[in-house]
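step 4 of 6: structure.
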Amino acid sequence: MYSIVVENIYLLVIVTLISVLQNAFFLLKVEKECKGVHKNPAAFERVSCANRNCMDAYPTFLAVMWCAGLCLSQAPASFAGIIYLVVRQKYFVGYMGQTSQSTPGYLFGKRVLFFLFLMCIVGIFNYLLVRFCSSDYKEYVETITSAASALLLLP
Amino acid sequence: MYSIVVENIYLLVIVTLISVLQNAFFLLKVEKECKGVHKNPAAFERVSCANRNCMDAYPTFLAVMWCAGLCLSQAPASFAGIIYLVVRQKYFVGYMGQTSQSTPGYLFGKRVLFFLFLMCIVGIFNYLLVRFCSSDYKEYVETITSAASALLLLP
Amino acid sequence: MYSIVVENIYLLVIVTLISVLQNAFFLLKVEKECKGVHKNPAAFERVSCANRNCMDAYPTFLAVMWCAGLCLSQAPASFAGIIYLVVRQKYFVGYMGQTSQSTPGYLFGKRVLFFLFLMCIVGIFNYLLVRFCSSDYKEYVETITSAASALLLLP
């Protein structure tokens, strides 16, 4: 039981751990700015806002990534998760930047989340096909998904 | 392995996906108001607050729904999840409404969360009964739970 | 299938349920202060801020605890989860206290989260050892982890 479970989720767990490290990094940044809030209130406001936006989207990201990994295949889901973390890092750093910069908005990583969302739908659709039509396309779908996940690297 | 896992969670995954869509809808509303914040700061404040309250309760909801689905039975848990999403939609739309309207408060969907919470407790209790007394009431409990979940439809 | 799954997660589910109860307690506190916000805006600000900090860290905590419980062993993970909930309760109550008190900061329960984080890494490392070297240290690791979790009780 133990090995089978871990075999199917260990990449997802690794991505989750990296995201936790990133959350800790964000919180440390906020705490650092919080101590110097009297000198630079605008910077604290920006970093706190960036952290809040990232945290608001965090449960959604975790839920979609784990669903995609469990329903279809963990390798492309974890790869998309890594890409999402890179996008989030860029968003956070960009938000902390110059005041004159335009606010990067609330949404980020839309493309990655959309890809993971599609993976979930395909996984469930494939399960229903297996159940009601006894036709299993899982291997083809996994190959296509792995190939498609490379498209996320496009800027 | 794969089919067994997906068979037991696919309804939960579908509800999770719907909740993700709803989150995206909320974020789009916030972003739309954010662009017009100079014209109508009160509306932005309201929609941002409604979004924050919904997001604060989101991990709690996901955790309780998945626990209830895994411990007892996925069909009533998913049904309660759908009801929760409907309640949340009504809460969000009501919050965005007239300023004169009384604030709907921080809590919403208490009844649904309480029902899911009870499902978890019953599921764990049943597991302990199976383990220590070798008496399995799971089928009766599932039937009762499915029937009881219809009570959530009462206004 | 059902019994095997519940057997490996029931302690985690119980800790999750307790954390949900605690979230409800926090929200009730916020709602109570919100009604008296005209009399004491500082108290509302404090309790709302404490609640937001707790909620921001909540998905991270859930993710790490479940990963640790699934990858290695549920008993020490649940024990660490209980300790985290106690720390969070102390943090929340401390935050609500006197205004003159120094702000307790954004981070709390660092030690517990770090312990759970280590558990995840050890669990994945052990899985990779099993897979590539066919040497299973899981029982030793579980014993050491259970003993080490007692160290969290140190103040």
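step 5 of 6: annotate
 - The mean pLDDT of chain A is 82.
 - Chain A touches chain C at residues 1-3, 5-7, 9-10, 13-14, 16-17, 19-20, 23, 27-28, 30-31, 34, 51-52, 55, 58-59, 62 (CB under 8 Å).
step 6 of 6: archive
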